Amino acid sequence: MPISPRRATLIEVAKMAGASKTSVSRFFGTERDKLSAELQQRIGESAKSLGYRPNQMARGLKGGGSRLLGMLVADIRNPFSVAVMHGVELACRDYGYALIVCNTDNDPALEQQHLATLATYQVEGLIINAVGQPGQALQALMESGVPLVLLDRDISRLNAEVIGLDNALAIDMALAHLSRQGYRSILYVSETPERASARQERLQRFGEQAEAMGLGNQTLILSHSELPSCETALAMYVEQQADSPCAVLCGNGTTLLTMAKCFKRLNLSMGPVGLMGIDELEWCELLTPGITTLAQPTDGIGRDSVACLISQLARNKPSPPYQNRHAPRLIIRGSTAP
Amino acid sequence: MPISPRRATLIEVAKMAGASKTSVSRFFGTERDKLSAELQQRIGESAKSLGYRPNQMARGLKGGGSRLLGMLVADIRNPFSVAVMHGVELACRDYGYALIVCNTDNDPALEQQHLATLATYQVEGLIINAVGQPGQALQALMESGVPLVLLDRDISRLNAEVIGLDNALAIDMALAHLSRQGYRSILYVSETPERASARQERLQRFGEQAEAMGLGNQTLILSHSELPSCETALAMYVEQQADSPCAVLCGNGTTLLTMAKCFKRLNLSMGPVGLMGIDELEWCELLTPGITTLAQPTDGIGRDSVACLISQLARNKPSPPYQNRHAPRLIIRGSTAP
DNA sequence: CTGAAAGCGCTTACAG
DNA sequence: CTGAAAGCGCTTACAG
């Protein structure tokens, strides 16, 4: 049973340095330069020898702010979400914030609960990859003035900034590429678009743009990604197009994985039947002959989410620039060479 | 410029309910049942109508504890780490803790920095997937009595609990399977084992056990996973074994990905040359003919890490059981069918 | 069962 | 440039 030596406190540092609490507080706050060189020296040394670091909980309680940001992720096991989180982390570090991450596992109830918890910790800003509709927890948070950014998914009737991929551009780039490669007819595969605005935007743009380009177009919605029925749908589609070269465009990583499995089961070879996806995953280059993708700039999306929060927090001070819609990067591989 | 209505405070609830601060505090703490039914009712109603939730920062400042756990991840983009984090999250929710996650990107300096930050937030416990050696930040934390669990990687001269895969068992299971399938000679591929005890344990057990089973055995250490040199090494190995069936066993997901790429570049077919990995990844079943793996029980590892922390926190109260070494699950696919 | 009071470790007007 | 004092929103002995 170790006698745990408590962490040193501001008072102890003040005592040791022969200074006031106020001065020590200034030393660790934003007013260090208002202290004489000599005082700074004394405080610095005392603090060091005591291993002192300000208690952030106490700081947050008074006017200091919690220096805490919250992030709500719909599915933490989705590589895209994690990649964005990586960018968020990087930016937090730069701005001196710590990050509380909550995974909602796509459960709206859990989302509400986590939101309440986050409020409890007095987070100064919130990055939300929403799964449900606003709900009272979020309303309360907004009303209490906490800055918000919506990641990838918009929420109707909530006027917060949305940061993510430029969905229209992504679809346009994909269709341009597929058309250039000679595919005349495209099947777009999406997860159920109800709750995710990004999915809706992509789906809608696909219809419009394919039409505008004179490409054949159909849509397949995966509800529970039940493999057998996907397989059937894919087989039927390909058969229908027997005469002209066709391709499958997947709206995200999950659908791409599902469709890649279907290709395999049906023994379809990629290329002759095109396959392309939004989101770059580690196995895309591994699968013969390589899958063409649109990579999202995940670090950038993450960083800009934080930058957006910081701007809202800054109010009048000069604040970092950020972008709402990010352009994808086309990675061409064998799966779109007929 | 919205006038942000501050969140309600304990005092306001007390005032509205015509009760004392103490009673309101008790209502939201562990002594609610010491309050008369009538008082409970009044406080409950007032709190509800004010939308009151206790400020966790203030609670933590007094004796309440921060109800915050910290997790340090060496590489957040590693699917294994994320999967474990998922388990940690689940358990945190059960025990009523929130989680601050810090990614060290395999940088010991960053690790130190994050550790200091975590201390600043008064985390009550720490789950560490270490990259560096202890360092003063960790020492200080330990000495101040913060419970610690080491994830997957041990740190010499730190007597904290280590939770992770049963590495010896994993290697034994892998070798037993490969031997059963008829492979007579195995190449074990590992990342540099210096800083990661799990890698060391697997590597060492591999040598011992393969020897004991009378299997040919060699080792390949990937330092920067430079593809061309791996490719050469693999080609040479396979050539040497021309006479007897041989297999490649990968120590983790990263090395498995690298080796799968080498197989592809060399046009080696999996099965005739065996391929197997520790860690189950989404593409393992996708790659023809499917890669045999040992899946780690990541949720369990995550949950037990938290359980271990809780036990240390509980001291005398009954605390949850947990396991230090977890058994993997063998998933047999075509890559180990000669 | 209930409450008045002290105090957790800080910051921030306010004075000098 | 420096400090004494009040107070952030809670919890916890201590008393009744």
Automatic annotation (TrEMBL), chains A, B:
<keyword id="KW-0805">Transcription regulation</keyword>
<dbReference type="GO" id="GO:0003700">
    <property type="term" value="F:DNA-binding transcription factor activity"/>
</dbReference>
<keyword id="KW-0804">Transcription</keyword>
<dbReference type="InterPro" id="IPR046335">
    <property type="entry name" value="LacI/GalR-like_sensor"/>
</dbReference>
<protein>
    <submittedName>
        <fullName>LacI family transcriptional regulator</fullName>
    </submittedName>
</protein>
<dbReference type="InterPro" id="IPR010982">
    <property type="entry name" value="Lambda_DNA-bd_dom_sf"/>
</dbReference>
<dbReference type="Pfam" id="PF13377">
    <property type="entry name" value="Peripla_BP_3"/>
</dbReference>
<dbReference type="GO" id="GO:0000976">
    <property type="term" value="F:transcription cis-regulatory region binding"/>
</dbReference>
<dbReference type="Pfam" id="PF00356">
    <property type="entry name" value="LacI"/>
</dbReference>
<dbReference type="GO" id="GO:0055085">
    <property type="term" value="P:transmembrane transport"/>
</dbReference>
<feature type="domain" description="HTH lacI-type">
    <location>
        <begin position="8"/>
        <end position="63"/>
    </location>
</feature>
<dbReference type="InterPro" id="IPR028082">
    <property type="entry name" value="Peripla_BP_I"/>
</dbReference>
<keyword id="KW-0238">DNA-binding</keyword>
<dbReference type="InterPro" id="IPR000843">
    <property type="entry name" value="HTH_LacI"/>
</dbReference>
